[in-house]
Amino acid sequence: TQLLEQSPQFLSIQEGENLTVYCNSSSVFSSLQWYRQEPGEGPVLLVTVVTGGEVKKLKRLTFQFGDARKDSSLHITAAQPGDTGLYLCAVGSGNTGKLIFGQGTTLQVKP
Amino acid sequence: DAGVIQSPRHEVTEMGQEVTLRCKPISGHNSLFWYRQTMMRGLELLIYFNNNVPIDDSGMPEDRFSAKMPNASFSTLKIQPSEPRDSAVYFCASSTLQGTGNTIYFGEGSWLTVV
After folding, report:
1. CA A8, A43, B93, A33 torsion-angle sign
2. Residues of chain B contacting residue A43, judged by C-beta atoms under 8 Å apart
3. pLDDT confidence tier of residue A98, bands split at 50, 70 and 90
4. How far is A74 from A9, CA to CA, in rounded Å?
5. Averaged pLDDT for residues A68-78
6. Which of A88, A96, A102 sits opposite B55 (nearest CB)?
7. pLDDT, mean over chain A
8. Are A21 and A8 in contact (CB under 8 A)?
9. Are A3 and A92 in contact (CB under 8 A)?
10. What digits encode the pLDDT tens for the residues A45-61?
């Protein structure tokens, strides 16, 4: 059983469309992170959300942490081919610095 | 600033051979992580070190896997003997231990193929 369930697993859309991907768990977390991984590279941190209900924006990307701090969503407005990649959510394990990742959502944005 | 540096970037080896993957973390970071990524299992934490000391190796799949961190600027992950099912991308990552909201910086990965 995965600690973090991400959905959908795969998403292929046309440039200009909007999309939302989800990261869900039955556990409560003090914080949650979103990473993006492009082909042939390592994951890169996009954002950290800490407070229940928090919304953070990064250009066309909007991240929300659930009120109960068990889930999160990532919404992309007017997707671009450059948004193509693997989107991973991750949570820390106590104060150890260790991060546990979800399986990820693979996004393909076609021109 | 140099990021996390991994070598080799690509390795193809025969089953039964020893494989050594190397990592240089970001200077000043006191935590180092080894992850493995496959299509089936995603990104899995194998082992991590704090201040060069292994803290949690529960993710290391078998005794064939071992990791060392002899100093703050170098770590190795060794597989001996290697098997085809070890084929994966192995990522090294480093961070400064901050507790909540820790940021981990990944290297570009070592792509291992065992034939």
Report:
1. negative
2. 43, 91, 106
3. confident
4. 14
5. 95
6. A96
7. 92
8. yes
9. no
10. 999 998 899 999 999 99
